[in-house]
Amino acid sequence: QVQLQESGPGLVKPSQSLSLTCTVSGGSITTAYYNNWSWIRQPPGKGLEWMGAIVSSGSPYYSPSLKSRISISRDTSKNQFTLQLDSVTPEDTAIYYCAGGDYNYWGQGTQVTVSS
Fold first, then answer.
1. How do residues 80-91 score in pLDDT, each as one tens digit?
2. From CA 74, how far away is CA 64, in angstroms rounded?
3. What gap in Å lies between CA 7 and CA 29, rounded to an integer?
4. Which terminus of the chain has a smaller tally of CB atoms within 10 A, N or C?
5. Alpha-carbon distance values, 102 to 2, 44, 99 (Å)
6. 39, 94 in Cβ contact below 8 A?
7. What's the confidence (pLDDT) of residue 33?
């Protein structure tokens, strides 16, 4: 079955960039069947927030609220997709999840804390 695993630093300093990678196994990120691959986060005490996605063709889509500082890319040779969020603040502290296949498959989530 399809499995996703997030990886990246757990602590980022304010004003720096956050970079997370999602490694996918059991299914190709280029296959149209799975449609899209997304990044979602959950700040402490709040609900889930969709950040953006990259579809099987490679086109990215971003939340309007994050569009100025988010980038999602992929490495098809490694079957990975990557989130970069620039100019982070403590408000970006959250559990970050990657998900795929129209949200049928989820990673376990990774805690990212923005603090000096």
1. 999 999 999 999
2. 20
3. 17
4. N
5. 12, 24, 8
6. no
7. 85
Written as six digits, the tokens of 81 are 């997709």
In a 13 Å sphere around the CA of 46, the CA atoms on its Cβ side amount to 14
**DSSP tag of 90:** G
SS3 33: helix
Q: What is the pLDDT of residue 32?
A: 82
**65: which 2 tokens?**
């609220």
Half-sphere exposure of 65 (CA within 13 A, CB side): 5
Nearest to 53 by CA among 13, 81, 89: 81
Q: Calculate the dihedral angle through the C-alpha atoms of 76, 78, 83, 84, rounding to the nearest 10 degrees.
A: -100
